[in-house]
Amino acid sequence: MRHPFLVSLCLGGSVALSACQKPDDNSVDRAIQNVNAVDESNLSDVMLTVADPNEAVAYFNRTLKDNPDRIDIRRGLAKSLIRAKRHTEAVAAWDEVIKHPDSTSEDRVDLGDALIRAGDWERADKELDAVPPTHETFKRYRLEAMVADSNEDWDKADSFYQTAVGLTTRPSGVLNNWGYSKLTRGDYAEAERLFGEAIRQDQSLFTAKNNLVLARGAQRNYTLPVIPMVQTERAQLLHTMALSAIKQNDVETGKGLLREAIETHPRHFEAAVRSLRALEG
């Protein structure tokens, strides 16, 4: 006699449980929005890293039309234009970012970076001056150093370079820039030291290796430094040193270095061959 009652109770419980588990429409909409937000965030990250820069520009332009108030999309567009080397357009995009009420000091630093890339050093100086002194970042001081260099304000440049080096765990690039600044001022020994430090931080940085050879050549030191280098790099550095010697009228030394560069290179070294032929002809 109890069985029908138990069956009815179980069925009733199942119906009640089913009713409790059914989500409302608002919950479904929120869940879909959350998934879409995650997918869009991932896509934006892809566009800013591995995607073709011009495809990224097109993506952010399309997205911006539907979301004109979103500052993250405006930033994505500006960064993509920098990646695409469309620097004048990037300046205009960063201008729109800093007009947004949610813009930050870092956005103004990025505007300064775009202005430097576009060759507008004067306005870059003004925009960086407008960044609060409490905003102390590696990028800000690296750019400040570059602007000071362009103004030939050497004391300020050295101070900014020193600060920038202390704000990063990978200072090789800024050390190379600092060394090049010293090279242009004629402080060849200090330039050589800074290039050496840059190479110790990043042994793959060929630009610093080439600059180091220039600094040594400017001091009429025509021996290659003891630094890590593969055979092709050695040949290229010998070629750089040869040209440095020739520039200082040490022509016979230059010829010898060119011949060594040609012999060292694992393939045909056209640039060195052409330079040697011009000297011998």
UniProtKB/TrEMBL annotation:
Signal peptide boundaries: none
One Pfam family from the record: TPR_16
Membrane-spanning segments: none
InterPro entries referenced in this protein's UniProt entry, alphabetically: TPR-like_helical_dom_sf (IPR011990), TPR_rpt (IPR019734)
Highest taxon above the source species: Bacteria
Protein name: Tetratricopeptide repeat-containing protein
Species the sequence originates in: Salinihabitans flavidus
